[in-house]
UniProtKB/TrEMBL annotation:
Gene3D superfamilies: 1.10.150.130. InterPro entries: Integrase_recombinase_N, Integrase_SAM-like_N. This is Integrase SAM-like N-terminal domain-containing protein. It holds the Pfam family Phage_int_SAM_3. GO terms for molecular function: DNA binding. Residues 25-79 form the Integrase SAM-like N-terminal domain. GO terms for biological process: DNA integration. Keywords: DNA-binding. The keyword DNA-binding applies.
């Protein structure tokens, strides 16, 4: 039904599908984020902690999702699942 509404509203589905395919996953986004932001902007011990969180919690839970697909519910589930980990 959403596809029909999109077509009726005059939006181009080909462009939408191309944009969806071009969107990066959380895993693909994590490496440049690590190199540009984590390693450059925080102290070494903080960077190691952030990298550990990425490797042990965030990427296993969200790495396969495209960044634009991650929802508040995904984040809440990750937070809930990690509540017992220090």
């Amino acid at each position: 039904m959403a596809i029909i509404a999109t077509i009726k509203s005059g939006n181009d589905l080909v462009d939408r599908f191309a944009a969806d395919r071009a969107a990066v996953t959380v895993k693909e986004f994590a490496k440049p984020f690590d190199q540009v932001h984590i390693l450059v902007r925080v102290k070494a011990t903080t960077a190691k902690g952030y990298q550990r969180l990425l490797e042990k919690a965030i990427l296993p839970a969200l790495g396969r999702f495209k960044v634009i697909e991650v929802t508040l519910a995904n984040i809440a589930k990750l937070y809930h699942d990690q509540r017992h980990n220090p």
